Amino acid sequence: MPTPMSRVLRALDRFHAARPWDHNAHYHRWLLRRLPERFDRALDVGSGSGDLARILAARAMSVEGIDSDPAMVARARTLTAPALPVHFTVRDAAAGLPEGPFDVITCVAALHHLPFSETLARFRDRLAPGGTLVVVGVARARTLGDHALGAAAIPMNVVMALLRNGGRRATRPTSMTAPTLPPAMSFAEIVRGAQEVLPGARSRRRLFWRYTLVWHQE
Comparing 96 with 168, which gets the higher pLDDT? Predict the structure, then answer.
């Protein structure tokens, strides 16, 4: 028999399907505040339809976006003006990253699709001295605190959906249409694993079922 919470979650899924908004794009402004005003090269891992890569292009000399989904890469190329210094490539980050160094590396809602420690090590090795890595990720809820933060996000998610869509039904943003996998690692596991590879990395739980990680290369 369905529990009250399972019924609430199913109702939220139906509501959000009718009034979608991009939880990842919600953190783009926050992400930009962690970056320099100007930098040379940027790499966006899991670039999807290219929203973040195009934003980074306003500050960078060049931006490379990589994604393993050919359809999303094709969509990103279609949406990107030729004058922008952005190049999109079909590439599985699990098999390796483009040659660096990069002054900025971003990875939004993609790290849980990749081998965690190996990918962070690749990010570290591709960052230029003084470079910045910013991750917006998804963790598996396991602790009471995780579940409490998730519960707090439910009414706020409804409010954001109504504000973004004006109470109307909307089409799903293209940046949210790529296949997704549920996260396997808890936030505590992510923090421990990140510290082993990136000493001094700053990680925080966030609303809307996200966490953030920021690290600066010495």
Answer: 96
